[in-house]
């Protein structure tokens, strides 16, 4: 007679998404390296982006199926997911700290090669006015975080109509932020190749933009699953995790606005 050992953890089945996502990220990184040398492989870049998007949607779908339809997420599993998200955000904080460290090093001790000035003298007349598009983006992103927090409260209060409305506003604001950021890039008079200021500016704001896109996808998937009745006023872990991530993105942008846009200007 076969015996079973009952335990509160969820033993996940074999999934293809982690390995495919890893290879897609590797190809995306290689594409970025070729871009820095003006030899961007558009085919490899496009395939990498599509695979990452596909794997993200499929991976989220599996998690929702395991948690809602199969009932695999016990209290300990939920706590483990929360801890995983905290560690992930902590790793992202360290990721951005490395860029800020580099930026402050070059700003507080500028090289003699750029005239011991920061930003370089040749770029001072081309800097983006922080009180134009960057300030508008700041208002948009902070407002989106506020609307998402209000939606969370209304979800707990079982007001689903208002919750859906505020989440839609959050998604629209996130997409507007991305569109304005792209407009700013296309109209910029300097590029990632123009001195160390241009390199750090586009790397930091670019990676933040990628995180905004990921956060928008996270909220979109959560919104779809909520309207399929996968979430409730007491079982909405994905809502909480997406809100944590979105607020992290908000805080990073505040630092970027102050030190990348406002201070050099």
Automatic annotation (TrEMBL):
Q: Which residues form the Heme-copper oxidase subunit III family profile domain?
A: 5-265
Mostly located where? membrane
**Localisation:** Membrane
The answer on whether this UniProt entry bears the keyword Aminoacyl-tRNA synthetase reads no
Report one GO cellular component: mitochondrion
Is the keyword Transmembrane helix in the record?
yes
Q: Which organism is it from?
A: Scelio sp. ZJUH_2016028
Can you supply a Gene Ontology BP term from the record? mitochondrial electron transport, cytochrome c to oxygen
**Topological relation to the membrane, as annotated:** Multi-pass membrane protein
At the top level of its lineage, which domain of life is listed?
Eukaryota
Please name the PROSITE patterns in this protein's record.
COX3
Name of this protein:
Cytochrome c oxidase subunit 3
Indicate the family of this protein: Belongs to the cytochrome c oxidase subunit 3 family.
Q: Which keywords belong to this entry? A: Membrane, Mitochondrion, Translocase, Transmembrane, Transmembrane helix
Q: Which InterPro entries match?
A: Cyt_c/ubiquinol_Oxase_su3 (IPR024791), Cyt_c_oxase_su3_dom (IPR033945), Cyt_c_oxidase-like_su3 (IPR000298), Cyt_c_oxidase_su3-like_sf (IPR035973), Cyt_c_oxidase_su3_a-hlx (IPR013833)
Q: What does it do?
A: Component of the cytochrome c oxidase, the last enzyme in the mitochondrial electron transport chain which drives oxidative phosphorylation. The respiratory chain contains 3 multisubunit complexes succinate dehydrogenase (complex II, CII), ubiquinol-cytochrome c oxidoreductase (cytochrome b-c1 complex, complex III, CIII) and cytochrome c oxidase (complex IV, CIV), that cooperate to transfer electrons derived from NADH and succinate to molecular oxygen, creating an electrochemical gradient over the inner membrane that drives transmembrane transport and the ATP synthase.
* One MF term in the entry's GO annotations: cytochrome-c oxidase activity
């Amino acid at each position: 007679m076969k015996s079973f050992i009952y335990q509160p953890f969820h033993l996940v089945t074999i999934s293809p998404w982690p390995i495919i996502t890893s290879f897609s990220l590797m190809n995306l990184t290689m594409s970025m390296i070729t871009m820095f040398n003006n030899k961007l492989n558009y085919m490899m870049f496009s395939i990498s982006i599509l695979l990452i998007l596909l794997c993200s949607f499929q991976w989220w779908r599996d998690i929702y199926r395991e948690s809602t339809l199969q009932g695999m997420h016990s209290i300990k599993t939920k706590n483990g997911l929360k801890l995983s998200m905290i560690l992930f955000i902590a790793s992202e904080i360290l990721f951005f700290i490395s860029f800020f460290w580099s930026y402050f090093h070059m700003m507080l001790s500028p090289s003699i090669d750029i005239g011991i000035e920061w930003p370089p003298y040749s770029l001072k007349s081309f800097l983006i006015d922080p009180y134009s598009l960057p300030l508008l983006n700041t208002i948009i992103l902070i407002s989106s975080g506020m609307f998402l927090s209000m939606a969370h409260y209304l979800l707990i209060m079982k007001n689903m109509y208002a919750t859906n409305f505020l989440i839609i506003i959050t998604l629209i604001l996130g997409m507007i932020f991305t569109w304005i950021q792209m407009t700013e890039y296309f109209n910029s008079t300097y590029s990632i190749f123009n001195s160390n200021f241009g390199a750090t500016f586009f790397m930091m704001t670019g990676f933040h933009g990628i995180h905004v896109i990921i956060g928008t996808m996270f909220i979109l998937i959560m919104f779809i699953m909520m309207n399929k009745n996968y979430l409730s006023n007491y079982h909405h872990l994905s809502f909480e995790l997406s809100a944590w991530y979105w607020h992290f993105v908000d805080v990073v942008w505040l630092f970027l606005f102050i030190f990348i846009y406002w201070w050099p200007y």
